[in-house]
Amino acid sequence: MTLINIPSPVPLQRGLTGLATLAAAAVTACGTQPPPDPAKALDSYRSVAYAEYRAALAGARDLQTRVKTLVRSPSAEAMTQARRAWRRARAPYSRTEALRFGHWFVDEWVPRVNRWPIDPGFIDYTDDGEIEDGFTLVTTERLHVAGRTLDTRSVDRRLLLDIQALSMDPTQVPTGYHAIEFLLWGQHRDGSGAGQRPWTDYALDSSTCTSGPRAAPTRHCRRRGQWLLAMTELLVWELERMAAVWADKPGTYGYRLVHGDPELGLQRALIGLVTVSSDILADRRIETPLHSRRPEQAQDQFSNNTHASLLNTALGIEQFYYGRIDGKAAPVALADLARHADANLAGQIDRALATTRRRLTRVQRAGDAGQGFAQLIAPDNVEGSRLLADAMIALRVQSALLSRLGEALGLGPLDPSFASDNSTS
What we know:
mainly alpha; 425 residues
């Protein structure tokens, strides 16, 4: 089964003058100084992708280790350590989201690891722990999906892939960060704060096993652990394959991006930065829940981690623009092409990115201080609304400026319409 499908690149709209505009701008601004090599800028971009997917993979492996401890030797401390590992693993993945939309196969793959929204009631109990036996994945041993009956007595990675492939409801897919998040935190009753799933949901003896506040058969706790183990194993497996796609090796997509048509490569890179800034962060993840005031529309709602993920996704945009890995910028990056093409515009982009970072850092600090996303969007929280609105405006400004950079480089309009539409946010 090919799980990361990379066909021949889909042609994008091409600029009339192409990168000749960049060369001409460099001569005008810098005399006879040649422009930075676009291939080197694209290699820096590829290097960031590879580094962040490798970091996400390392985080997922650590999470897998912590989950194994929780399932095999359940305790309050084991639950705490597994939750902390999830938060650590979530950060580098969030920084990779700037790759979306420009690279079609990333969007085909994203639902496998970041499907949202999900239906928690498909996986396990919600609210007060009351469930009908046979309804959730935790309790049933026969699952009916798309006219087929799957034997769920033995839970493994293959079973998860089968459910994912057969499900007709995109919210009923038990894979990825959010399914794992739900099994670690559970659903919070009033929609605010983090879930409070007790560690006893994984207890191995009949006197201790629970489903929330209710006593439960030991088989439910054991099956809950089996599903969680399979989910983390699949997440590691998916990230291993995606990281390999960006390696600097002949035959990989990352290698072809660097050594192929530079105009096409730059278009793809900028489309991601532009679209994730505006459509994903500003529109879907801030404006939509801010307008509705519905906490359940926020990603990372089970863990109350939305404020951190917003900042990390924005920091990823910065990293790809500056070619920055571990705080160190690459010698040649997209930012260097911008400075040679239009120094004034490049300065505006620098300031816009810094403003976005500053404003989302305030949102993160509010979350860390106890005002998570659900609290910030509460109807009576005027200051919270202002913090989010300021961040939303900054994201839209940086998106518009990055779009102008495409024109300055002679790439033509940056049109992400070729990207597949999916329900992940």
